[in-house]
Amino acid sequence: MSDLLSLIIAKYNYWLYVILMMIGLYAMIAKNNLIKKIVGMNIFQTAIILFYVSIGYKTNATIPIIKSADTGHGMVVRAADYINPLTSCLMLTAIVVSVATFGFAMALTVRIYRRYQTLEEDELRMRLSE
Amino acid sequence: MKLLAFIVVSLTGALLLYGTAEFSDWGDPNSPASLHVSNYYIEKTYEETHAPNFVTAVVTDYRGFDTMFETAVIFCAGLGCFLLLRDFREKKEYFYRHIPTGVILHVKDGKKKITTGKEFEYMDKDWVPQDLINRTACRILIPFIQIYALYVVAHGDYSPGGGFQGGVIFGSSLILLAISYDLQTLVERIREKLLGILAATGVLIYAGIAAICMPMGGNFLDYGKLAPLLPAGSHVRALGMLGVEIGVGIAVMAIMVIIYINIVSVGRHDEGL
Amino acid sequence: MHWPIDLIVLTFVIFCAIAAISVKDLLSTAILFSAYSFLMCLLWTVMGAVDVAFTEASVGAGVSTVFFVAAIFRTSRRTKD
User: Fold this and answer.
1) Is A62 on the interface with B (CB under 8 A)?
2) Do the Cβ atoms of B199 and B251 come closer than 8 Å?
3) Which of A6, B103, B108, C46 has the most CB atoms at less than 10 Å from its CB?
4) What CA–CA distance (Å, rounded) separates B249 from B251?
5) Number of structural domains found in chain A
6) What pLDDT digit, counting tens, does each position of A63-109 carry?
7) ipTM of model
8) Which of C49, C51, C70 has the CB atom closest to B273's CB atom?
9) CATH code: domain of residue A124
10) Using CB atoms, which residue from A11, A82, A103 is nearest to B20?
């Protein structure tokens, strides 16, 4: 038991990220309203992005932009001084795709509401089967 | 249903946590994600591309193929919203309000919007009295927001920012115009056809700059071969990155406005928030 | 990076997320979602990923909230659960 506790304290951030992801997944499965499902999807996406960005962090390193004192010939850029830019770059694309999906999902819900006058999933199921 | 969802979620969470037990500590410089290619990116980016911001250099130059398709995804989302929601039926009834007395005229079978003089104003069906302070403050603020957006696009290589962020800020300044006045003001200033052309032009600029590299003797997206086209002595790859970011910014700006207009008026483009 | 900031902001983020999916009024969901997005932006700034934080600030706390409120304006504002 104390082994589990020390494991939790050492890796507390991973536990919190996984809890956030599971909140998003629960909202996508269990909620009835379509807009709540979309919010759950977006929470899931941002939690995954948070997880990835936190992997690229290095202690005692600075942001991935070269300080102006270094720009010149013969300067040495050490990799341990800057945080990992690759994870940030991949997650930029993920954020862009998430906002595109969110906008399109909102357009779909507006269209569904215009046709069926409801956004609750059980009522939609009843009206679809009629 | 909720109990089943809870069980599924707990199982998935337990599996994910079991997987993270083997991860290296947080902030470790020797974790596997920070060892192989990213060290090359950090050490060689300034020599090869002359752009101080590593993230922008990696996004638009080393992984430019991803960003091109990301722009295509944004374009498809805007196109999809337009195709789902746009309603081309003509509007039949118009409401006009006489400003001194507050009397409302309801025109039932109108064909076109009547141009009114100074005493009447055109109003939406769910009209609220508009605040003078609100409108004036937004009217003063919008040009500064647009200048800031252009600054963010232009300085993508030197500070956090880039094409996408600047495009979103520019688009949100136009959405601010639609919210503080009314939707008709935005639609009359910036027609739908212009927005469609701008969105397509943004993607075309990106793909065009990438494709021009091929006749000059390089691969697709190889900005180093663009040197004969640009003034002598300039950093060719940094200028290629700037051109590409301008394309992304234009496309994203147009698409944000298109999605907003179509959602808020359910495709009819007449009245909104 | 100081671990108290990280822990406190992460706790607020989890509270915002749980609250955003539990309230019955969709306008409150929109505002809580915007606050969640802004707290995520703070987390990423503290971790050093400034480009990602800039993008999330402009997209999540800006345009995404506007789309959400526009969609609620055209559909209903109440939900059953």
Assistant:
1) no
2) yes
3) C46
4) 6
5) 1
6) 888 876 655 555 666 767 788 888 899 999 999 999 999 999 999 99
7) 0.92
8) C70
9) 1.10.287.3510
10) A11
